[in-house]
DNA sequence: AAAGCCCTCAACCGCATCCTG
DNA sequence: GCAGGATGCGGTTGAGGGCTT
């Protein structure tokens, strides 16, 4: 089916945002709040698609964003969450206040993937990428997490390959596991302090 | 000092899901 | 119950910067 474009592409800017555009967007959202992304660009005087505005705000302009410097704890948490959730970046981001799904996704692809590969682990399955001796497993902190903490049955993301976007029939939102994330995570993070602070909801 | 290569991050695109009429 | 519209998510791409040769 021909999906109508989300905006009049002929009249929208694309590419990097300018300072002025940022200021307009920030000013508008401060005055009117988030929401109605489709109509926001026009109302704010921006020649941008609503999706682009939302993305810019969510990933870059939001005041509560914590940028740069992932800690080792963050790394481990992301790895564990990825083992639990797969490529559900927004869910993972939800456990890391101040971080965005895009940021985590990029960080995963650039840093953590390599980190896991260096540990001899497959970044998709979180299993040893090659038949590894037990001693090697013991060297990987996450391996112990795998075997001892994560005993839930989760079809490996790359197992079927087409788990993309969870577009499978009538499955509920998180079909793969019982997502008591808040509980499970807070009690299964051996290496991180009780940092299960809920997303900083100011006001 | 210059050229080429690699890495990182911001942004875009298309699809899936949710919500409302 | 159905259809259409809006929003959110994940994958992918391109530009810019830094590093190496």
UniProtKB/TrEMBL annotation:
Q: Where in the cell is it found?
A: Nucleus
Recorded GO cellular component terms are: nucleus
Q: Supply the CDD domains for this chain.
A: SANT (cd00167)
Query: Where does this protein come from, organism-wise?
Result: Aegilops tauschii subsp. strangulata (Goatgrass)
Question: What is the protein name given in its UniProt record?
Answer: Uncharacterized protein
The molecular function terms of the Gene Ontology recorded here are: transcription cis-regulatory region binding
- What Pfam families does the database record attribute to this sequence? Myb_DNA-binding
Annotated ranges, domain HTH myb-type: 9-61, 62-116
Q: Where is the composition biased (Low complexity)?
A: 163-179
Q: Which InterPro entries match?
A: Homeodomain-like_sf, Myb_dom, Myb_TF_plants, SANT/Myb
Q: Where is the Myb-like domain?
A: 9-61, 62-112
Report the superkingdom from the record. Answer: Eukaryota
Q: Where is this region: Disordered?
A: 148-179
**Keyword annotations from UniProtKB, A to Z:** DNA-binding, Nucleus, Repeat, Repressor, Transcription, Transcription regulation
Keyword Transcription regulation in the entry? The reply is: yes
| Predominant localisation class | nucleus
């Amino acid at each position: 089916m021909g999906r109508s474009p989300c905006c009049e592409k002929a009249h929208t800017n694309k590419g990097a945002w300018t300072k002025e555009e940022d200021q307009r967007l920030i000013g508008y959202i401060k005055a009117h709040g988030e929401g109605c992304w489709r109509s926001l660009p026009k109302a704010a005087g921006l020649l941008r698609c609503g999706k682009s505005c939302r993305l810019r705000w969510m990933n870059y302009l939001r005041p509560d964003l914590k940028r740069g410097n992932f800690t080792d704890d963050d790394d481990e948490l992301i790895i564990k969450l990825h083992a639990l959730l797969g490529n559900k970046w927004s869910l993972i981001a939800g456990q890391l206040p101040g971080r965005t799904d895009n940021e985590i996704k990029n960080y995963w692809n650039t840093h953590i993937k390599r980190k896991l590969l260096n540990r001899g682990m497959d970044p998709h399955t979180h299993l040893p990428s090659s038949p590894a001796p037990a001693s090697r497993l013991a060297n990987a902190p996450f391996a112990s997490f795998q075997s001892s903490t994560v005993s839930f049955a989760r079809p490996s993301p790359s197992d079927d390959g087409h788990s993309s976007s969870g577009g499978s029939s009538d499955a509920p939102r998180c079909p793969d596991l019982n997502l008591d994330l808040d509980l499970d995570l807070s009690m299964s993070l051996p290496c991180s302090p009780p940092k299960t602070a809920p997303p900083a909801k100011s006001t």
